[in-house]
């Protein structure tokens, strides 16, 4: 419940998260709204550019292609954020939700790209997006299939399957002649250490932007060591107009199935973020807000595939920022979206980001991917009773999911398309959790409180 007091500048209310300084429909003065919008930008910036960098590097794209991918990621994130905030028809929650590249898709898209090429990635992203749109329309009926036990296991697998990628980049990047050099490992370790220290021992903005601070320091340290190559920045233009399907598009059934399952997983994440956002102002999300949020995820991810970007979803760290600051104004978040659009139209900005040395990216990735695992772990720990049944489901799902991811050669006797499907740890582990939860008698993975609700 909330106790609302109005004045000329803001609305303050009690909520489960603390004091609400600006409600969802409030418009702070521009002198406050602009820096608050920049704060949202900084909170999500590294994640929304690091994930495309990881995918581009893992599938072997060159620097100019990587720069373009990053540019499109920023542009689409900005447009998606504005649509989510203000809506286009039924698409959009009309809540202060920041959108960006989804971490759920990193491992699946790397698997698709290495098996079929980048055109197949965008084909799968576009064709599979209606899965989340359907979930948006029928989320009340379908949500019971995905209790915290299942979604928590899948989110943990997202983090675990990305661990090898983080370590590879920390050592210098796959195939690098300097792979494993102490300089690479030292820079990665420095970035990791600074991120942890700033997050744990500083308050307010420095804590929220700890990974960004660590990356800036990593850049500065890498430059005199000859690890920072900014030659691509000079070649990049100042303004460009995005072109659809720049890399072409291909359709492979196994790739589409993998992407479709990832859309199911990210739908569950978005449901949590929508509830978390409205929770900061002391209420539950309405059906219209939930449907609009999921529809925005699906529709704007399809839009992302057409415009050479990877699927977009709500950013949980920005939901946390709203609870931390008490600023729930969607006007502020729309300003963040505007900044992203501007940055996405300036190739030089994308070129600077794309030049990030691999060890710097690796040190940041250890933190980011580790936090994804931790979020899944917390989801299970806080919502699931750890009975013998539920522990069995967790164990089987994690071992099978992680096993096929790191030992894909064990599947060499299967047909090629089936190898792609069975080699996806997210798909194998997620389906294992989903099926076992459905067939093993029990409470469906809920806590006692949830089961009786």
Automatic annotation (TrEMBL):
Source species, domain of life: Archaea
InterPro entries: NCS2, UacT-like, Xan_ur_permease
Keyword Plastid: no
Membrane topology per record: Multi-pass membrane protein
Localization per record: Cell membrane
A GO cellular component entry from the record: plasma membrane
Name of the molecule in the record: Uracil permease
